[in-house]
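Hi! If you just cloned this repository, the fastest way to understand the data is to look at a raw example. We've pasted two of them here, unedited. The first protein comes first, obviously.
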Amino acid sequence: MSTHKLSFEESLEKVVLAEKCMGCAACVVVCPFVCLQYSEEMPKLVKKCEACGICPRVCPRYDLSYPALEKFAFERERKPEEEFGIYRRIVVAKSSDENVLQVCQDGGVVTSLLVFALENGMIDGAVVSGISEEKPFYPISRLATNPQEVLECAGTRYSYSPNLLAFHEAIKLKKRDLAFVGTPCQIHALRKIQIIPLRKYADPLKFTIGLMCTESFTYEGLMEKQIEGTLGVNLHSVKKINIKAKVLVTQRSGEIKVIPLAEAKRYTRKSCTFCTDFSGELADISAGGLGLSGWTVCVIRTRVGEELFEGAEGAGVLKTMPIEEEKGALDLLTKLSKRKRKTVSPP
């Protein structure tokens, strides 16, 4: 990865103009001169760039080297046969907490791990995606500092949430022990921050959970045009959205509306088409539903992730079963990872 001190105009502006910027906000967060602001899901230069060279070094779409980041995270590179990345253990799991199961997306594993970590003093905050109070089912980045706040943020929104903005908020609040939950591209940015390292941001980060992700959709397209416009669903009535080979929109009444996945994909954010990582291969733990109902596939990748997961499992917080009992989910994980890896990587 290059260490030349390039300005924003010489580096990331090209990423933005080519529509490769996914709006993770890493560059905005780390700019020491506050030259950038986050606007309309991307960075905007608001004053003269000082050409410190930091922003391109943290951008997941600029000069990304998987081998270097793999060596940093795992002390080795991925082998060709490791189709969905390096890992120590893979299981299917679900929460043992009924309160979690009532609000979670699939098996409630991510929510339960965060609650477990907070209650046991392992972290003093968790960076997650929440829901806007002004806009129905619109994702916003949020810092959760207690179990109730974690529960409020449970579930998945399929539009993009710039979670690094909440991570920045946590740093400004002087949080010392943070968990981060986000998409693969956001995990890439954090690993680049760690490898530099930018101690201000790297040191408080205790573990990351990567959410398996094929793509995210524009809010205007999926929510407003398709769900509200075409289906006639009041967005305030939406309780949950899930994807199981098709988009399932569950309303508070219990009625479920179905959108063919091909129709939803018309609203894929263009920047997602450049991503080559489906399963969050650089996270400490990766999690995804993979077609299962009420269970989550968990890929435990690092020693840190293993200690967290086994601690929760040993405390009875999680129920687990071997991945071999859900071979279809394992096959789907492999298939989607291989398909995503074939994506043309941005320069």
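Ok, and the second one:
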Amino acid sequence: MLHVDPDIRRAHTLPGDFYSDPEYFERTKIEIFVRSWQMAAGPECGKGVTPFTLLPELLGEELIISRGFGGHVTCLSNVCTHRGMILVDQPCQPDVIRCPYHGRRFSPDGKFLSMPEFKDAVDFPSESDNLAQIPSFTISNFVFVSLDAAFSAEEVLGPAVELLKRPEANYLKPVGRKEYSVKAHWALYCENYLEGFHIPYVHRGLNEKLDFGSYEVDLMPFAVLQKARSRDGDLAALYLFIFPNLMLNLYPGGLSVNIVRPVDPSRTIIEYRTYANDTGNFGTGADTDLEIVEIEDEKIVEAVNRGIRSRYYRKGRYSPAQERGVHHFHRLICKFLEETEHGQT
């Protein structure tokens, strides 16, 4: 059983085999990601019905965001309750959702409406003929969903509510979206994000803009907030990590989002989205060279992914001054895996 001492001064990191063992990877899929809250859509998702695949390489769950019908945002299964056909393959604004296979019809909020050639079916329709509704939570124009939430949205996403209420997050418009393939375990990418310890050594350009000595880290039950200031003392960036794989980076000119999508123990997709506010300042401060910083981070975590598999590496130690976020992240991994192991939900 994984264990990380709650006292960071005494604690050792997760063992190397956590990152290389396929069994651990499969356990995190079921015991962490299925039970977590995931960002499903942002301001780019308009009114109507929008299909998407939740963590396509890991969970592969086909879902729909239904926005604007009766003023509500709803998340539904995108799978027909008749024979499992995918219902919607592109954004649209339908009066009804009609299955392209056999014509079963649903309302935009997932209620079964009609089905041809079923007049002799007994006990039909029933609740199971409606589309499954997935728990969802909306913050501004961002929609979060969970397949089997271990904790309430308010508990997990409270820090995101506070971040996205800040004036820098007003009037956000999408300006970019990319994906990066990283040859590393998903947790290594998150660990790198959760400490500024490496900035002077890895990110020369970013380090010239930030005052490393004023770096602050706040720990919350399911989140870590890092505050970075410029060398002039102004707030340069707020880096918010929501367990297990979401990064919200707020700058004076807008927001960038990293969604970490596990593929296998040595490969991860980073879905990267950027949103500018109406100040015209996006890309002028700590967010000037985001792609350069991304590539520098990827190079580091790929090297660690190779090194952590060495027969000479077992566990490391934490810097009590600089790696509180990493320690908290490791403790949360242990918490989720231990709770499921003991039959708790």
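That's it. A detail worth noticing about the second one: The CA atoms of residues 41 and 205 lie 31 Å apart.
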